[in-house]
Design a protein that fits this description.
Alpha-Beta Plaits, alpha/beta, 3 domains, Rossmann fold, 741 residues
Length: 741
């Protein structure tokens, strides 16, 4: 039996050879007993220890989980209603002739709005759907379940609903879309009617102004026929009013633009308010308009520019001429400055309110921004119109003072022409509205929903996959909980960090002999070499370590049985003898379950029990035939209590006498926790080693065994970890063999 071992050496602890109990206690490290970190290595350790039952149980639980999913699975059917979007029929909102996501969002908001869904759930077929009937808020449920999406570059709108009953899915989609189309047509009619009312109001005003202008032209024409030409008139009887005509033409253009902009603004604002009504939401109060923002406004800047020009003209008039303050030219210039000043103040106040409203609307979306832009443009046009009006009034005032009475007729004719243009513009808008009213709806049915024949998925593959993963993970979690509870030893570093025992050596797994071709038993050479090297490393550590080099009596024990203490004791004795060439006495102190004689293939004599019973001398029962360097003292046949035999002092005498005849004594003792006589053996030894078996020994039991040994006065040097796989041992420590010559 030449099966010795290597181990991982620790840095020498500086103790004197004659160490006290307190010094020996410092060899065992004092660490807190914390739970291990659950990381990848921990999980791999759990798999390595428990894969025999984790994998089969995982397959069973995964199959059961998939079966449960299948038992509750009901195929779902998706019904789809397709709408076509055709924006070519728009007349009023020409800027909206693009298939934008904003338009699709608006239609989605209308379709999933309360007004549409509330009418839809009143349908008996929809109200009887179990999901709808049992929902606390059916409208919220439908808003969540109905999917509205765009396709073909926003030229198509798909409305989808999924249910376990294909007929129910198709019925619900058709009902919701039909209600949406009715609601949309109603909204379009209301919008068009509102626009027509606004247009008719403006048209009636224009008709009234045209009639008034005609009446005035007739009256002034009659006066002009009766009167004579005055000085200053041309031969044609008309005054040269080219400048005034240009101003009046400009005013007419501005008035026409303002009328169009006002209609567009009212129409856009009406549509925007309808959309906001479908999606009410609160928005934070807008920030007040600063003076800087107001000064940078286009409309205010234009008014300021007009005022500055008038002031410069006034300054030039005063500096370059000698007119007085009562001069009519000076008075008109002064009056113009005052008029522009008051107009600037009015425009500033109006623009402050408009900018504040624009800041509030801009928080909504781009549609609100377009309305604000139209409002700003409208305000700018009004400011320009007011400026032109003031210029016309001033010019007319000065012209009347120096011109003939026939100028009134020219003004009246110009007014008539201007209002005729405005009336024509508004009339064209009315025709456009009528055209749009009669046009085809821009969103219309393309393909109604029918009851689908095929489900969305034949089997719930995703759910089954998740269930299978959960089923496989469940036993792994059970293994983790069991591992956390048992806290078994995984490796040397874990044993050192979680216990109070320094690891003096790691023992590779004992190689198993297999049957060769001829029927003889064969041991793997590589595994045998690694095992022998690991035992040799342990023996070298015990002999050369500073605090252990004077130790001659070694006690090998463990917390529980089956943790490899007998194998370590036997192989350690052989390794020390082979390394030093000195005489070794191996004592089998486990009298309840002796096993040393089986390891060496010897018959058990009366041994230690016979000596402690006083039947013979210990020298008479020592087996010296196995080796001339390693002698065996078997346990013997125990018939009574081991405590009674050990309490008489025979063990101390045996060790004392054996020290004189042997260089080293190795004792294999019972486990500490179930057999307390192990403490008596440990007490008479120079050094005590606690054996731990990988994947079997538990940390708390090792700690408990250490405390018992320490309280009994034993000098515990550390622990020995057995059962390390040969491959892992070789990967960590490497392999180094003698070369063949």
């Amino acid at each position: 039996m030449n099966l010795p071992v290597q181990s991982k050496e620790l840095a020498p602890v500086q103790h004197k050879p004659q160490a006290t109990r307190a010094q020996w206690r410092s060899v065992a490290r004092q660490t807190q007993q914390n739970l291990p970190a659950i990381d990848l290595m921990f999980m791999l350790g759990v798999l390595r220890k428990s894969w025999m039952w984790i994998i089969p149980l995982g397959l069973v639980t995964a199959g059961v989980a998939c079966g449960v999913v299948l038992s509750f699975f009901k195929p779902s059917y998706e019904a789809k209603y397709r709408l076509e979007v055709d924006l070519a029929n728009y007349v009023i909102f020409k800027d909206d002739r693009n298939y934008s996501s904003e338009f699709i969002d608006l239609q989605k908001a209308i379709m999933l709005g309360n007004s549409v869904l509330d009418k839809a759930i009143q349908d008996e077929a929809i109200a009887s759907i179990p999901r709808v009937a049992n929902a606390k808020d059916p409208i919220a449920l439908l808003r969540k379940e109905i999917k509205v999406s765009s396709a073909a570059g926003a030229r198509l709108i798909d409305v989808k609903f999924t249910d376990t009953d294909p007929k129910v899915a198709a019925r619900l989609v058709n009902t919701v879309v039909e209600e949406y189309l009715r609601t949309r047509r109603t909204m379009e009619q209301i919008k068009t009617s509102t626009q027509e009312r606004n247009v008719m109001a403006v048209l009636q005003k224009a008709e009234s102004e045209v009639e008034s202008a005609k009446q005035r032209v007739r009256e002034l024409s009659m006066q002009a026929i009766k009167s004579e030409n005055v000085v200053g008139e041309k031969e044609s009887g008309r005054i040269d009013t080219a400048y005034l005509d240009s101003l009046r033409m400009r005013r007419m253009e501005l008035v026409s633009q303002i009328a169009i902009e006002e209609l567009s603004f009212v129409e856009a604002k009406s549509a925007y308010e309808q959309r906001i009504g479908e999606l009410p939401k609160e928005s934070p109060a807008p920030e007040p308009v600063s003076d800087k923002d107001l000064a940078n406004d286009v409309v205010v800047s234009a008014a300021k520019s007009q005022l500055e020009i008038a002031k410069r003209e006034m300054s030039d008039l005063v500096n370059l001429s000698n007119i007085g303050e009562k001069n009519p030219v000076y008075v008109r210039a002064q009056r113009r400055i005052e008029t522009l000043q008051s107009e600037l103040e009015r425009i500033t106040g109006v623009r402050r309110i408009e900018l504040l409203a624009r800041g509030q609307d801009s928080q909504d979306n781009s549609a609100a921004g377009r309305i604000n832009s139209m409002q700003s443009s409208l305000a700018e046009l009004k400011a320009k119109r007011d400026t032109v009006e003031n210029q016309i009034k001033e010019y007319m005032s000065s012209l009347k003072q120096s011109s003939a009475s026939s100028i009134d007729l020219q003004f009246a004719e110009a007014d008539l022409e201007e209002w005729n243009e405005i009336r024509a513009t508004v009339h064209n808008r009315r025709i456009e509205l009528q055209t749009e009213r009669e046009a085809t709806d821009s969103v219309r049915e393309l393909e109604r929903a029918i009851a689908p024949k095929l489900p969305v998925e034949d089997l719930p593959y995703k759910q089954m996959g998740l269930a299978a993963i959960g089923g496989m993970v469940f036993p792994l979690l059970v293994g983790v909980l069991l591992e956390l509870r048992s806290r078994k030893v995984d490796d040397a570093s874990q044993l050192e960090s979680r216990s109070q025992l320094a690891v003096l050596g790691e023992i590779a797994t004992i190689p198993v002999r297999t049957r060769g071709k001829g029927g003889e038993k064969v041991t793997a050479t590589r595994e045998l070499r690694l095992f022998e090297e690991s035992v040799d490393s342990l023996s070298t550590t015990l002999i050369l370590r500073e605090t252990l080099k004077d130790s001659r009596v070694f006690c090998i024990t463990s917390a529980l049985s089956g943790e490899g203490k007998t194998s370590v004791a036997c192989q350690l004795a052989v390794s020390i003898s082979r390394a030093t060439g000195k005489r070794i006495l191996l004592i089998d102190g486990d009298m309840r379950s002796p096993d040393v004689h089986h390891v060496f293939g010897r018959k058990m004599s009366s041994g230690l029990v016979g000596y402690l019973s006083g039947l013979c001398d210990w020298r008479e029962v020592v087996d010296r035939e196995w080796s001339d360097k390693v002698h065996l003292l078997s346990a013997g046949h125990l018939k009574g209590s081991p405590h009674r035999l050990l309490s008489a002092g025979g063990l101390e005498k045996l060790i004392r006498e054996a020290r004189e005849e042997y260089d080293y004594i190795v004792m294999d003792t019972p486990p500490v926790l179930p057999a307390s006589e192990a403490l008596l053996f440990a007490r008479v030894a120079d050094t005590c080693l606690v054996c731990a078996l990988r994947d079997k020994s538990r940390i708390e039991q090792l700690i408990q065994a250490y405390h018992r040994l320490d309280s009994a006065g034993a000098k515990v040097a550390g622990s020995v970890l057995s059962g390390v796989p040969s491959r892992e041992y070789a990967n960590y420590y490497g392999e180094y063999y003698a070369s063949k010559t």
